[in-house]
Amino acid sequence: MTRMIFTHETLAKTLTYCLMHFTVAIAVAYVLTSNWTVALSIGIVEPLVQTGFFNLHERSWNKARAQYHRKVMDAGLAA
User: Fold this and answer.
1) How far apart are CA 63 and CA 74, in angstroms?
2) What digits encode the pLDDT tens for the residues 23-69?
3) Do the Cβ atoms of 29 and 39 come closer than 8 Å?
4) Amino acid 78: pLDDT
């Protein structure tokens, strides 16, 4: 059950992060270049790569958190 919650939460966080990142990246690229073609190119590629890495990062943290809680529970039951 916990794994399912982490999976859905991670997916929702990844999607909302992606949308926010696209908006910010395109806006910043346009401010710097004053060119929509360049801004869209930069603003699409960079967030896609970053979002993929965010998802891996979030999944790693969820795994570490679950392992920590398991270790704490196991230590508590052994005492």
Assistant:
1) 16
2) 999 999 999 999 999 999 988 898 888 878 988 998 899 899 889 88
3) yes
4) 57
Contact criterion met (CB below 8 Å) for 23 and 42? no
Please, are residues 62 and 6 in contact by the beta-carbon 8 Å criterion?
yes
* Per-residue exposure over 12-51, b if at least 16 CB sit within 10 Å of its own CB, e if not: eebeebbeebbeebbeebbeeeeeeeebeebbeebbeebb
pTM of the model: 0.56
Tell me the CA distances in angstroms from 28 to 37, 38, 67, 71, 74, one per residue in order: 13, 11, 39, 44, 49
**Largest alpha-carbon pair distance within the chain?**
65
Residues, the chain, total?
Answer: 79
